[in-house]
């Protein structure tokens, strides 16, 4: 009678199996880059109360739908981004030369608006109707403009301009602005050296601006500054009450609750959310009413993210 030997009695099989397991583990580690971030994401899900999770945007559930699409007519300096719900279009600001571009949700060029007399425009946010707020980084100014449907140029001399002059002069000034329609306030971020998050009241008062009130001790500041090396852009979502905070250097988009709690984040690195390559220099972020997320990156790239299943 033949006796079949157990496979492990063959001495060469054990080293082969061990080598295979090591190679498999290395492969998984290469795929699961930023393991500490992934573990932290799991911890966030377990530690965030169910009620907050139910109302949150949930950036961890997004995947890229359009990756690194070059924007037509743009060679460089793509910066701030906003979504106009009434026009169902995006508005992108360029800071060299200073221009506004109206884009379709797919990144097609619809209109070019020259910004005459502007210096270093880094951010734009739609604030209802035909009004937009532009942020001038170097001068630390906020400019409220009116943009008619067919307008192709805007003169700064004809717009309301407000200079705050907070720790300015080093070209590390205002990088993002976000409108909160619940109180008509404007969130404003200073890029770094140092990073700051403010909220300004009174800028949008009609027919003439009221007394300006600047808040610097915001609850959202703790979450906005927690894991970021700089602050590149903002978006406020009235449906959830969350503030989206974009960091170029950290390659991170964070969702912060009104109480300052970090609720979710979207890594802008390779192998996250379906990205084949890292986002090179994220500069602007916008979210539409359906939950579609738009990002722009230097020099001229558009990214669109949608929730899994959308």
Automatic annotation (TrEMBL):
Listed SUPFAM superfamilies: Thermostable phytase (3-phytase)
Q: Matching InterPro entries, A to Z?
A: YjiK/CarP
- Pfam families assigned to the protein according to its UniProt record, in alphabetical order: SdiA-regulated
Keywords attached to this Swiss-Prot or TrEMBL record, sorted alphabetically, are: Cell membrane, Membrane
Q: Which CDD domains match?
A: SdiA-regulated
Q: Where in the cell is it found?
A: Cell membrane
Q: What is its main location?
A: membrane
Q: What is this protein called?
A: SdiA-regulated domain-containing protein
In which organism is this protein found? Pseudomonas lalucatii
From the broadest rank down, the organism's phylogenetic lineage runs: Bacteria, Pseudomonadati, Pseudomonadota, Gammaproteobacteria, Pseudomonadales
